[in-house]
Amino acid sequence: MERLRIALVLVSACLLPTFARSSVVCRSVCVLDCCEGEILLLLDSSGHVNSHQFTKLLHFLSELLRPFLLGRGQVRVGLVQVGITPRLEFGLDTYNTQNALQEALRRTQQLRGVANTEDALRLAQRILRIDSQAEATPRIILWFTDGVGPGEVDGPMAALRRQGVSVLAVSTGAGNYHVLRNAVTPPIEKHLYFVDVDDIIIITEDLREAIIQLIRAERLQVSDVRSRSAILQWRPMLSGGLGSYELHYGPDPSSGTTGSSVSIESSKLFIPGDSSWTQLNNLQPDMTHTARLIPQTNLHNIRTLNVTFRTLPDLFGPVTVMVSDLGPDHLRVRWHPVQPEQVQRYRVEYGAIPSGPVRTVTLPSNQSTALLKRLQKHTEYLITVTALHSSGQQRATSIKACTREVLHALADLQLIPAGRGSVHVDWRGGGEGLMGYWVSWKNEDWPSSSSSSLFLPPRSQSTLLSELGHTSRVCVSPVYATARGEGLCCTAHT
Question: Is the pTM higher than 0.85?
Answer without folding.
Answer: no
